[in-house]
Design brief:
Helix content is 35%, strand content 15%. It is an alpha+beta fold. The strands form three sheets. Strands 9-8-7-6-5-4-12 form a seven-stranded antiparallel β-sheet. A three-stranded antiparallel β-sheet has the order 1-11-10. A hairpin with a 5-residue loop joins strand 6 and strand 7.
Length: 426
């Protein structure tokens, strides 16, 4: 019986794509496969920003990204986002809170921002501590005073490691470098549909790939506005239909005018996550760095692949910094800290199953006109605020980035950060 209860809890925790509600568990739309996560190495794995694991930058990163199971296994060194949930108590009380204050105080008192001048590492470090700041600032309870203390310290560090706008724009285009390495096919493999691919021309303005926008806000509204992202990244939705660019534009127009005629067979839909950074003037700048790319191909059933940025690979060689991800801790729109639930093992979800949890076929049979799984069009199950029908159009990277930046500038997390900077520099 106890084993069954644990499995039920695991499913509830791991399926979170239908939204977060503190009072009720999310509706389960698909049952993901779960697997015991492999523990990371406890020493060399934390030499992220410097070969010495005890370097102060590594110690800050380790304090906020390391999570430990009851039996002492460590996770988090290779995770792109901190393993922190809405209801996480880690860092908010007890020893972990005091240790966090001490390492942040040491960083500030010793001006440790001067220890590393490499723009790429400074960009990633800002990104990493900014994610923790937003987690703290996204809600005031519990432990409001402890949150405010950490937020104030993190805000100073975020400001100290900023780059000039020109430095941000000069960071490596890790996606283009991955393509140039020619380690992966650039198109769907009909004979091997399970084989992952990365499209070579997705950012070319004359290619068959079209970036979609919508009237009224960010195209990937749910990703942009939800935990754990809160618009620190620009999420871009690209579509490619068989037949070239005009065929793709016609496909988007058909979604608006006569969706029943929009055939999905052979269509690719890609979600690209591009990193936003804060420059030395306090402005939000879209960087060249791609944090993740999620790919869906309709054949006619859906095939999913996901690549995610690896810090270790990025710092060693940007050419292979995007690595295929097969399992993931579920953070997006989820709650229930798996490190703080008694008897619940540290579980990851398989990437195809976690994708199907939101992008499921409706009806649940593959067919050539199944557009419901393209949430940018259907908004199912994530409706627009006024339940309106989205009007989709071809947009540009710059325009979508500006839409996201404007949303972020009006969000409580950004206002909290700006207020703390203003208090420090009246």
């Amino acid at each position: 019986m106890k084993r069954n209860i644990i499995l039920v809890l695991a499913i509830i925790v791991l399926v979170g794509c239908t939204g977060y509600s503190p009072s009720s568990p999310p509706e389960i739309t698909a049952t993901p496969q779960v697997t015991q996560a492999d523990p990371i190495e406890t020493t060399s794995a934390w030499g992220i920003y410097d070969p010495d694991p005890n370097h102060l930058w590594n110690r800050v990163f380790r304090q906020f990204y390391r999570r430990t199971t009851l039996n002492g296994e460590e996770y988090g060194a290779a995770e792109l986002d901190p393993l922190l949930w809405f209801d996480t108590m880690y860092l908010l009380n007890g020893t972990s809170h005091q240790q966090a204050i001490e390492v942040l105080d040491e960083f500030l008192l010793t001006h440790a921002e001067n220890l590393i001048r490499d723009p790429l590492k400074r960009a990633m470090f800002q990104r990493d501590v900014w994610a923790v700041f937003d987690w703290l600032a996204s809600q005031s309870e519990p432990y409001p005073s402890q949150r405010r203390t950490l937020e104030a310290l993190l805000a100073q560090i975020i400001g100290r490691v900023t780059l000039a706008k020109e430095e941000i724009l000069s960071l490596p285009d890790n996606y283009a470098l991955t393509i140039e390495s020619k380690t992966l096919p650039t198109n769907f493999q009909v004979d091997h549909p399970e084989k992952a691919f990365l499209p070579a021309d997705i950012f070319r303005s004359d290619s068959a790939w079209v970036s979609m926008g919508r009237e009224g806000g960010p195209i990937a509204m749910t990703h942009t506005e939800s935990f754990p992202f809160f618009a620190r990244s620009v999420f871009l939705v690209f579509v490619r239909a068989p037949g070239g660019r005009m065929a793709t534009l016609d496909f988007i127009d058909t979604l608006n005018t006569d969706p029943g005629k929009a055939l999905t067979v052979g269509v690719d839909v890609v979600l690209v996550r591009r990193m936003l950074l804060i420059d030395d003037q306090g402005a939000l700048i879209l960087s060249p760095l791609v944090e993740s790319i999620q790919i869906r191909h309709f054949n006619p059933e859906q095939h999913f692949h996901e690549f995610e940025l690896s810090r270790a690979h990025l710092f060693n060689s940007s050419a292979d910094s995007l690595v295929l991800k097969e399992h993931a801790f579920l953070l997006f729109m989820s709650h229930g800290d798996i490190f703080e639930i008694a008897d619940l093992p540290a579980l990851k979800v398989t990437v195809p199953q976690i994708c199907k949890g939101c992008h499921f076929e409706n009806p649940p049979l593959p067919n050539p006109s199944n557009t419901q799984s393209i949430i940018s069009y259907s908004r199912y199950p994530f409706s627009l605020p006024d339940n309106s029908k989205p009007m989709l159009f071809a947009t540009t990277l710059a325009d979508e980035a500006q839409t996201v930046i404007e949303w972020k500038m009006n969000h409580a997390t950004w206002k909290s950060l700006k207020a703390l900077w203003n208090q420090a520099n009246p």
